[in-house]
Amino acid sequence: MRPTFPRLPLRQLALITLGVLLPTPVFCQQTQRDSVRVVNRTTLAADKIDCERVAVGDLDDYKPDLILLPSGELLLVAFHQYKKPGNKYLEQNLLFRSKDGGRTWSKPEKLKTLGREPYLSVLKDGTLFMTGHLLASDVRNPHGYIHGYLHRSTDAGKSWQSLRIESEGIRPRASNHTTRNVLELADGSLLLGVDYDGGSGPYFMWRSTDKGKTWDKTRKCTPKNFKSQYGFFGGETWLWRARSGKIWALVRVDSNELPIQGRPIKAGNDQSDHFILFSSIDQGKTFERGPDFGDYGEMYMSILRLHDKRLLLTFTVRDLKPPLGVRAIPGVETNDGFAFDFNKDRILLDTKTPIGKAQGGGFGPTVQLKDGTLVTSCSYRGADNKTRLEVIRWKLPARQ
């Protein structure tokens, strides 16, 4: 991933806290009208869905994530890896903005925030969080180990305050990670999972009662029937709160260590990882292991509550079942959780990665606009082996 981007000269914000560059004007993007297939349609009223595809960013931008602000503005983050001498990298986080529901996007703002695979969470009041993890080989990492970051913004991403997840004093030089998202509870308090690789944790469920200004970092978390050389949260786990208050953790696991029940495989790499559900009734102090969720090679999962009370699960097929790319399936919410059938109503949002090419990232997730339009972000790999970002605008068919 070596391309150099042309950038307009920008004036740096005068901020004491970690900042960003001023946004640039919206520029023209290629928009394509298309349709997506629904495989094994069962509950939906159509087996083909019209959509708009909007190209965003530059070649080899990777793994986009988006959120909808209370103002109606969409923010999308992604990252770009630049190779440096000595097997080092610089992974640049990028932020794009859309004020028209994802039809057009600003040029990228080069963020000063550290941590690859940036992922956004937004509170009801508009406070933003962004998680990520910095590789040991990144030229901006003086600590020599992989570690997570939590960035916070109260001005729609114009400036950020950053918190580094430290291993010093807990497990020196051990890789650490956070959950993918920050979870807002009914009482307004926030939860963030933090843990350390190596097989023995420790695992923590950080809690904040002041919108993330400060955190109680001492709350231990015990995941039951979980044993892995990797973390329980691991930078991948996605948290969701049920109506009853039960907290669900959608956990990515190594398929050799924790295979799908009755269907063990010999996975050659992490592209065949899968997800297991864990749940907590004590605000994340303990998690009980539940069923496997999805199949091998299906990951990056997130759940969206839709206006019509249905749920939408967005996830990425990374291996074993080409065409690779982002999928979505409708589901049903229960008082304690949710129900999805991975074998029915599979919406193939992204199938552009050619058969035989490595996965192109995928990632998702999906947000819903006031008019019901769904907006999903993804990255895919082209025939030239370069990744590209895309935003897909579509609507979920009614129940039949």
Summed up:
By secondary structure, the chain is an all-beta fold. The protein has strands spanning 26-27, 31-39, 48-56, 61-68, 74-84, 88-98, 105-106, 109-110, 116-122, 128-134, 147-153, 161-164, 176-178, 183-184, 190-196, 203-208, 222-223, 238-241, 247-253, 274-280, 286-293, 298-305, 311-317, 325-333, 338-340, 346-348, 362-368, 374-381, 387-394.
> What is the structural class?
mainly beta
Total beta strand runs = 29
Helix content: under 10%
Q: Which overall shape is indicated by the principal axes computed on the Cα atoms?
A: globular
pLDDT averaged residue by residue: 93
Distance N to C terminus: 45 Å
Query: What would you report as the Rg, rounded to the nearest angstrom?
Result: 20 Å
According to CATH, what is the topology? Neuraminidase
Structural overview:
The chain is mainly beta. The protein has one domain (33-394): Neuraminidase. The chain contains no helices and 29 strands. It has strands at 26-27, 31-39, 48-56, 61-68, 74-84, 88-98, 105-106, 109-110, 116-122, 128-134, 147-153, 161-164, 176-178, 183-184, 190-196, 203-208, 222-223, 238-241, 247-253, 274-280, 286-293, 298-305, 311-317, 325-333, 338-340, 346-348, 362-368, 374-381, 387-394. Strands 2, 3, 22, 23, 24, 25, 26, 27, 28 and 29 form a ten-stranded antiparallel sheet that branches. Strands 17-21-20-19-18 form a five-stranded mixed sheet, with no helix packed on it. A four-stranded antiparallel sheet has the order 4-5-6-8, with no helix packed on it.
